[in-house]
Predict the structure.
Amino acid sequence: MNTKKLREWFLGKELDPFKLETKHSLALVAFLAWVGLGADGLSSSAYGPEEAFKALGVHTHFGLYLAIATAVTVFIISLAYNQIITLFPSGGGGYRIATSLVGPYAGLVSGAALIVDYVLTIAISVASGVDALFSLLPVGLQGSKLGVECILAAILMWMNLRGAKESIKILIPIFLGFVITHVVLILYGVFAHADGIPALLPDTIAETKQLANDTSWLFVVALFLKAYSLGGGTYTGIEAVSNNVQSLAEPRVKTGKMTMMYMAISLAFMAGGIILLYLLWSAKPVEGQTLNAVVFRDIARDMGFTGTSLGIVLTVVLAFEAGLLLVAANTGFLGGPSVLANMAADSWMPHKFRYLSTRLVTQNGVLLMGISALAILYWSGGKVDLLVVLYSINVFLTFSLSLFGLCIYWCRHTNDSGWLKGLLLSGLGLLVTISILCVTVIAKFEEGGWVTLLITGLVIGLSVFIRNHYRETKEKIKAVDEIFANQPFGSLSGHIKPNSDDQTAVFIVGSSRGGGLHALLWVQRMFPNHFKNFIFVNARTVDAQGYGGENTLEQMRTEANLSLNYFVNFCQSHGMAAQSYVGFGTDAVEEIFELCRKIQDDFPNAIFFTSKLIFEADNWFIRLLHNQAALAIQRKLHLYGLQMVILPMKV
């Protein structure tokens, strides 16, 4: 079995990005988007409400306030993010809105926070899912959890390398199973205590006043804010839809808003309902079990299940809960690579994070997310309480920057209809998110919050270094282009057809005219009057930006042809026979190789040339930032028996 066959068996057959049916088949309708992107928010009901309720300690009557506040907060943030979907239908979410409306460095902070957050999405979802499963097993098996978590994370990474839509379809039954079982348990759990619900509010108010008299209203407010903030993990994942609008089916804005509505309703019901269950059923923590497992066991027993049947029901419920958390972990593999691709387009990240695999997924981003999540799981030991702290801080940092950007937008567009409503909604959301952010950082700084800030800071610092390098390189290439821009065209006009039997110089060129002319003039100087034909080849990479945007593929074709026409016209104006070949695909090296094979058939006496950037301070990191396409192409051509020369272009 050759390498190509092995890759197809492992990842699936190649997809053609230029076929309309390919893009249509990959686009997510609202339901699939709810499963693939909304699952992150919905799954947070497995750990967010528990962290908030446990923070109340013995003052569990505050659970009623928490349930109401949680549901309201979900709708506030969701409605605010609907505005982002409308303003940025090409995706990018928090990163794009912070960059456009606040500034590039605000976008950098938001993007770095999102990258770390999506890694933690995978880690915490897998860890929490395994916790749910191990709630059914003896306490003595707890030591095996970390190994199981790492295996599951690796499986999810493989599934996403095969394609986003494929991974979502596999997980649909799990998602629906979770929704059905949890809706039934919540509704039964609430109605089973229907007699006590009318007295719940007045009793809660009375207990709150009594607590304030015994301590102070400042203590009461501080206690509620702490619990409310530490339950911030409940709202994570809401931003996933706006980050991935480009993956949705047309019309994107309508599909995005529909997906957001599904997610808001389901999350508000689940999270608020579970907190209410804790309160109504007087849930108490049990070693080796989640609070959900404890309360669901009590409800199932009240429904009449006992012995073996009780174990089966609880196993099914917690298995679906664990399964949904794995679906949520999948969101990290969808959203993280998307953010990386957007940042790579702005040169904050290595450009290779924009490239698509043969399955039209950002493979490098998927691998980075998966490997980083495995590292976080190993470092943290899969402890959910620690991961929740790390997770929540960056989520609300991104929320706050995005909502601040919306406030700026509406302040600048006071002539637009509905601006006041938009400003008030954005301002209210900003107040909520920044409050949660501040309380979480202060309350949990020494318990792991500093780790999130440190990692995010390192990502920001690395991004600044990367962008500075790309900017300096671009300026040097521009200087080379300006030197060769003065090369005059000849006086001749008309097309000179190459003769297939003549000696042929084939130049593999990119978007830089300087690089192409540098190679052409070098060959003419070193081999005067030897080559009669001059062929120019260019292969454009269909990356995440090109495949996701409107009309970008057509624009790519136009730009590639204009670039090649420049070289052909330059040669023909000097009386040299010239021709061009162009290709498009997800792998530039493979496309160039196929074009070179075709050229060899058309022009048997061909020698291939290309330029390669040479840096004075060359090291492994510089090589990481620049694809080594020239060396890869040379190796493939040499193995095929074709001759290729790489010309150094010092920058």
